[in-house]
Design goal:
Chain A: InterPro entries: Cro/C1-type_HTH, Lambda_DNA-bd_dom_sf. Chain A: Residues 10-65 form the HTH cro/C1-type domain. Chain A: Keywords: DNA-binding. Chain A: It comes from Paenibacillus helianthi. The complex is a heterodimer of chains A (74) and B (147). Chain A has 74 residues and is mainly alpha-helical. Helix content of chain A is 51%, strand content 8%. Chain A is built from five helices and two strands. Chain A has helices at 10-16, 22-29, 33-41, 48-57, 62-65, and strands at 6-8, 66-68. In chain A, strands 1-2 form a two-stranded antiparallel sheet. Chain B has one domain. Classes of the chains: A mainly alpha (74), B mainly alpha (147). The interface between A and B is medium-sized, with 19 and 13 residues.
């Protein structure tokens, strides 16, 4: 299966936020840890609602957490 | 490997073992005469008992699996299904339903081709089993490869 075109910086952002664990982020946004794992691997594009909740968890805008396409081209 | 991946594998193995052992136990008891009242009674009870046994075994094995998961990993199993789980469940149900409908049509096709009711029931039951396996494989695939 091809990777999703919606990428994210969740792994880096967790690290920047006092090395927040996947479970802590999952609890904050109301999903299971496995979903955070899938998001970080690029195996899943979240719903708009979940994307906003994750951005809010980091106190950032949606664009600062998620991007469309290859981030290396930015 | 995540909890859901392990659970999909356990579910798949459980389905195969239950169906295999149940068939090995029940098929030798199949009545000789095709299309008799006794034959319909046999196949009716075959399906009902298989359904009940499968449900009971799945619940029991799910409980045992959760206990084993907690002991071996020290982690608690997810208490709820989030949007990813629901999406994967929907895809698994869709594929499972599609396979079951194919099995159902094949079973009806057997009747159209003047096969005995036994053949029809065997195809119908096999279709049900393959649809169950398809659902588990779909879940495993999407949990591993993504959605």
């Amino acid at each position: 299966m091809s990777k999703n075109l919606v990428g994210n910086h969740i792994r880096r952002l967790r690290f920047d936020h006092d090395e927040m664990t996947q479970q802590q982020l999952a609890d904050k946004v109301g999903v299971t840890r496995q979903t955070i794992v899938a998001l970080e691997k690029g195996n899943y594009s979240p719903s708009l609602e979940l994307a906003f909740r994750i951005a809010l968890a980091f106190n950032l805008s949606l664009e600062e957490v998620f991007f469309y396409g290859d981030s290396t081209k930015e | 490997m995540t909890y859901q991946e392990k659970k999909s594998i356990v579910s798949l193995i459980t389905a195969i073992l239950i169906f295999g052992s149940y068939c090995a136990y029940m098929f030798p008891k199949a009545p000789e005469g095709a299309d008799s009242t006794e034959s319909f009674h046999y196949w009716g009870s075959f399906v009902i008992i298989l359904t009940l046994v499968s449900i009971a075994a799945h619940i029991l094995i799910s409980i045992i699996f959760n206990i084993a998961f907690r002991i071996t990993t020290g982690e608690k199993e997810p208490a709820f299904a989030d949007e990813l789980d629901k999406l994967i469940n929907l895809k698994a149900t869709r594929n499972s339903f599609f396979v079951f409908v194919l099995g159902f049509l094949a079973a009806m096709g057997a009747l159209v081709n003047d096969q005995s009711s036994q053949v029809m029931f065997v195809i119908l039951i096999a279709g049900g089993f393959i649809s169950d396996v398809t659902g588990s494989i779909t879940k495993l695939y999407h949990y591993r490869k993504g959605v």
